[in-house]
Amino acid sequence: MSSSPASRPLDGFRVLELGQLLAGPFTTSILAYYGAEVIKIEPPGTGDPIRTWRVMKDGVSLWWHSLGRNKKCITVNLREERGRQIVRELAAKSDILVENFRPGAMEKWGLGPEELRRTHPELIYARISGYGQTGPYSSRTGFASVCEGVGGLRYVNGFPGQAPVRPNLSLGDTLAAVHSVIGILLACVHRMKAKGNTGQVIDTAIYEAVFNMMEGVVPEYSGKGVVREPSGSTLTGIVPTNTYRCKDGKFVIIGGNGDSIYKRLMNAMGRPDLADDPRMANNAGRVVHEKELDAAITAWTGTLTADELLEILEKVGVPAGPIYSVVDMMNDEHFKARGLFETVKVNGEDLKVPAMVPFLSDTPGRTEWPGPAIGAHNDEVFGQLLGYPAADIASLKSAGVI
User: For residues 298 and 293, what is the distance between their CA atoms, to the nearest angstrom?
Assistant: First the structure.
């Protein structure tokens, strides 16, 4: 946990978070890391389901301690009109609101952007959903797994003729969160550029965040009717770049696709014939002979351990690297030197959580506390920010509103 006194770029911004699980909460985790005061609203009693997902310790998900970091957690029952009035009061004191309910839910509760921005036009209202706020799919349930398929990622990810592969991550949610942060920061810049500029609504769809990563697939199809297909561990049209097995059973990634890099790779392999082969002089030729080249590289990597191979390629300047698990990452000196792990205290014990990037030289982000208990900041937010008397807070609690 950092004790750095440095200011952070979002110091002074207040963010109200509504929603649960990953896309919305990860958006606000990033904002909180860089200084925003994030007030997270959860349903009384149960809280965000992420608190009980995956690996648990002492009854709480270890993931939660990272995802909920730096947030002030309060409980509000949105099914009660008094609870919704609390949200209106908090929104009126906030710069940014982030929600990731199904489109129409916030309007049903009287908490949509038109209503809240009617009295608070400076409010930046960020919405995250599976398919966006408009269009024929907008009402569909938008799980990241499904949206990764619609957005094109699953189609190109895998081996030809086999079922598409899912990365063992909620990648669509994370990509949507990053895009939402970009939209929020752009809206902040616009609002600050000139007096009188207001906030605006940011509409982030998970499938569109995935689609935004699809590089050249649209112009390739539009211009020449080419459909990019799954290609296993290779990258279509760029050769050689692949994953190769070594003598010790470990895999390494080799990117030898630059013309000069290719020559260095072949010479390191003891294959000057391939290095000087005019058929392989440029990428277009190497694409034609991809199978021949991959067979030669595979034969070579099978004679060396991963460490031996990587040492050789490092010396000759060929991009190559291992495939790391979390164990490898946490033991790697470069990860440590770059400050990619931060330590927080949970129930008196140290817990490592990942630092967030990018690193800023003058206003770095930091983790100040891990994800707190449900309703941990009720008294602070209701009593100090909204000015409720202690008796009123107790009454709201007994009524199930908070």
Answer: 9
pLDDT at 3: 52
Q: How many domains does the chain have?
A: 2
The string of pLDDT tens digits covering residues 254-312 is 999 999 999 999 999 999 999 999 999 999 999 999 999 999 999 999 999 999 999 99
318 and 390 share one domain:
no
Domain that holds residue 273: 241-245+251-322
Is residue 56 domain-resident?
yes
Pairing of strands 341-346, 349-354: antiparallel
Q: Do 286 and 350 sit in the same domain of this protein?
A: no
Task: Give dist(CA 118, CA 137) in Å, integer.
Answer: 28
The confidence score (pLDDT) of residue 297 equals 98
**CATH number of 283's domain:** 3.30.1540.10
Q: Label the pairing between strands 96-99 and 14-18.
A: parallel
Q: 158: how many CB neighbours lie within 10 A of its CB?
A: 16
Half-sphere exposure of 344 (CA within 13 A, CB side): 21
How distant, in Å, are the alpha carbons of 217, 272, 279, 298 from that of 284?
18, 19, 9, 21
Query: Is 172 in the same domain as 301?
Result: no
The set of catalytic residues is: 173
The model's pLDDT over 275-286, given as tens digits with 9 standing for 90+, comes to 999 999 999 999
Residue 273 lies in a domain: yes
